[in-house]
Design brief:
Layout (H helix, E strand, L loop, with lengths): L1 E3 L2 E2 L2 H50 L6 H50 L6 H40 L1
Antiparallel strand pairs: 1-2
Helix pairs in contact: 1-2, 1-3, 2-3
Length: 163
């Protein structure tokens, strides 16, 4: 079977070529598992802060809030805003990794089709889909990095305010 510019490949070599994207699919799966865990933690933290805000508002009721209550309400509002931004970064990371998986699957399918039908013309598409998948992984890592920095900033702010 002709896949790489006149080079004939046997079935084992074709399967090996198709496994390279599969390894990337597994790597993306691990990245997705970790980032989904972060997403759950961020969403849970937003819910806890919203609940604390509701309890504080009920406690204040119709009386004039103390300075400490006002400081805490302001802190909660800032943290929720930052956490919503952090959730968007995590969402973008998840979408990037998911798109990468789709592109790696498409790469494997295109490799298989190209091998079975002897369509060397698909080489360009194979390379482009794999490279786009790698770009999506890189983009997901960048979003995850920004999310990590944002998470640290939120914790730093909370510790500073509570001192």
């Amino acid at each position: 079977m002709d896949l790489l510019g006149g080079v004939t490949l046997n079935a084992l070599q074709i399967i090996q070529l198709m496994l390279a994207p599969a390894v990337m699919i597994s790597a993306c799966g691990l990245l997705l598992l970790g980032i989904n865990n972060k997403y759950s933690l961020v969403v849970n933290r937003i819910r806890l802060l919203n609940e604390e805000k509701r309890r504080l508002m009920m406690k204040i009721g119709e009386k004039t809030p103390s300075t400490q209550d006002n400081v805490r309400l302001e802190s909660i509002a800032i943290q929720i805003s930052a956490l919503v931004y952090r959730a968007k970064l995590v969402r973008n990371s998840v979408l990037s990794y998911t798109l990468a998986v789709a592109l790696f699957v498409l790469t494997s399918l295109t490799l298989g089709i190209s091998s079975v039908l002897s369509l060397g013309k698909l080489n360009f598409i194979i390379i482009i889909t794999f490279l786009l998948g790698m770009c999506c992984v890189f983009l997901g890592v960048i979003f995850a990095g920004f999310e990590t920095v944002k998470g640290y900033n939120i914790i730093s702010y909370e510790v500073k305010v509570d001192d």
